[in-house]
Amino acid sequence: MADYLNALAEIISSNVKILGDAYAQDGRKFPSLDEPFAPTKSAEAAAVQEATRLIIAAAAQLTASVRSPLEVLLEQATGVYATVMLSFANDHNVADLLKEAGPDGLDAKEIGKQIGFNGAYVARCLRYLATRHIFREVKPNVFANNRLSSALLKNKPFKDIEADSMTKYDDAPISALISHTTDEGFIGSRSIIEFMKDSKGYVSPLSMSNQDRANLFEWYEKPGHKWRAHRFATAMKAPAKLWGQGAYASVLDWHSLPTGSTIVDVGGSTGEVTMELARAAPQHKYVLQDLEGAIVEAKRRWANEWPEAINDGTVTLEVHSFFEPMPVKADVYFLRAIIHDWPEADCHKILGHIHAAAKSTSKLILLELMAVHACPDELTGGRTIPYPLLANLGLAVGGFITAADMQMLALVDGRERTPGDFEELGRMTGWKLETIKPGPGMAAFIFSKVEV
């Protein structure tokens, strides 16, 4: 046991040194948890990201090893309170109020007065979060922002945030993602076990909880939920904030394609992928497809950000449902975080429509999270993981992906997939998995067409 604990401690110690050296080389100190979050170039370096993952994996495993089983299990069992407290603080704009209060913080009574809650309750809620390093309790019952809570900030003065519920989370994708997760995700989670036992004709646990047989996206279109749909669209921009720009353009050598090749961004919303690809390789033609509401938003976005691309024909905006036959014979079909949103039968239908339209030389790119087993396997066993860490690096990598997998189950009866799952999905729909290109957040699964 001592060797096991020493091995974990050594992973932490050696990789903390890597972090310190990297920041020192850039003339910086490692950011304090007590300071507001600010992205740094040092954090983007590959060596720093790898060291960070190893520290997280080892620290979490060390904690699980030395704590009593009862404490570990109770921490997990009471995790629902973390969801509720985070929802309370985020949706009531506590971080925004504390930003205006400054580093000295604000008394819980005053916070309660500003947001309409009893101050004693506020103090207990924020102390729960501060104990878990979200916010700081700078004096008894006085709270201030820190590195984690400042990531919840919205892009407006506190007094203006609630003026329009539709735009509350605009330009604040991390806050929008947390709100979406603690709202729809929480509602859906209540019915996961019952749904897995017997779906009773509901399309997802969320559908079961709501006693409504509409899927998530149909539910968003119903009266009273348009603001949720708008928040969801904002939340989906968070990966770019978390993982940085350039992830889409790097998945393929776009300049190796013949000039004038056609790339379809399937279900591309307002064009996050299309805009990045078209700027990186403007010699090609791009088709951005989505439902009418998304394309209306896309027209506004492109008119504001890059109207020339529309006017000169580099980019075409097209209303299309991927559950209908694909109208474009393209060289590349790009789907970002689409497949995990749908049950298996629907995924077969989506990829089947694309297969029917594709050329013999077409490529299919699925940009998705890559689930990894907690034990070594044949497809992902090439990477050497330091002893005694889990094969998926536990909370450092597998933690986020397994949580996302549960979110997909709760909201849409979708799933995150392992490489083997993607290989099987391709085999069932006429696509051969050729390459997996891991990225900073998602992996690109690149398929070629197989005639069936």
Automatic annotation (TrEMBL):
Domain O-methyltransferase C-terminal residues, every copy: 249-431
Keyword S-adenosyl-L-methionine: yes
UniProt cross-references to Pfam families, sorted A to Z: Dimerisation, Methyltransf_2
Keyword check for Magnesium: no
GO MF terms, alphabetically ordered: O-methyltransferase activity; protein dimerization activity
Biological processes, Gene Ontology terms: methylation
O-methyltransferase dimerisation domain: residues covered: 75-154
Keywords of the record: Methyltransferase, S-adenosyl-L-methionine, Transferase
Range of residues in the leader sequence: none
Gene3D superfamilies on file: Vaccinia Virus protein VP39, Winged helix-like DNA-binding domain superfamily/Winged helix DNA-binding domain
UniProt cross-references to InterPro entries, sorted A to Z: COMT-like, COMT_C, COMT_dimerisation, SAM-dependent_MTases_sf, WH-like_DNA-bd_sf, WH_DNA-bd_sf
Protein known as: Uncharacterized protein
Protein's organism: Pleurotus ostreatus (strain PC15)
